[in-house]
Amino acid sequence: MQAVDRGLSWLLRVTVTGALIIGVVIPPMLLRLINELSHTNDWFGWRIALVILYFAAFLVVIGLASVVTRHYTGEQRWRPMKREDLGIVLTGYLAIIVCESVFEIINRLVYHQTQTQNNAAIKSLMIGSPWAFWLMAFSAVFLTPIMEEMVFRGVLTNLFFKQEWLKILLSGLVFGSLHSSSTIPSFLIYVGMGLILASVYRLTGKLQDSILLHFLINFGAMSIIVYSLLT
């Protein structure tokens, strides 16, 4: 799959990508603010405004990333998924489970960590207030996969490099770097996940494939987190 338009300068491409990545980290920052304001008496109006802003951040980033991706790929519509796409998605899912399991075992044996710093940060946000709990539970499953795939796969792999392996490597490294990690194995969990997601997208050329895979991963992870916090 080749991009058809290289009209933007390298500096402008970096600027656009950087702005989108900043947009990706805005929702968690808003959740922290919601948690801080939840301890004050008069904050109902702020709560509504922040919730609206929270969802708006997702929509803006998704919309802008979609425009950039369509501009560079020349594809104005998503191609329909086929049966072989589901096979690739399931293979990617199994690969991520294996990758995650291996590095989690190493992380536990070497660093004595039972969970990644990223999952700990998510739990910390969710226990801050009921609003943050349900906003995170919903968005992590239904919005984050779309937003992150549009940015880290749709934009990153189409705006930079010509070699497929460099596109995939860049996507995996940036994706892994934006997930909180305190050890090398935990960092490699997210890098590996990013590499597999990027490989699925570059193999099929369909963002909905990597979005579906990301949805499956986040649904499983969030189900475990929600269960652990409610029991």
| Main sheet makeup | none
Coarse structural class:
mainly alpha
Ends apart, CA distance between termini: 46 Å
Number of domains: 1
Helix share of residues? Answer: over 70%
Poorly predicted tracts of residues: none
* Rg calc: 18 Å
Overall geometry? globular
Helix segment count?
9
Give the number of DSSP strands.
0
Helix and strand sequence: HHHHHHHHH
Strand content: under 5%
Organism: Lactiplantibacillus fabifermentans DSM 21115
Pfam family, one: Rce1-like
Family: Belongs to the UPF0177 family.
Protein name: Membrane-bound protease, caax family
How would you explain this protein's 3D organization?
With 231 residues, this protein is mostly helical. It has one domain. It has nine helices and no strands. It starts with 9 loop residues before the first helix and ends with a helix. GO terms for molecular function: endopeptidase activity. Keywords: Hydrolase, Membrane, Protease, Transmembrane, Transmembrane helix.
Task: Provide a brief overview of the structure.
The chain is mainly α and 231 residues long. It has nine helices and no strands. The protein has one domain.
Give structural attributes.
9 helices, 231 residues, single chain, 80% helix, mainly alpha
Write the layout of secondary structure elements.
Elements: H1 10-37, H2 44-73, H3 83-111, H4 117-126, H5 130-142, H6 144-159, H7 164-177, H8 184-204, H9 207-230
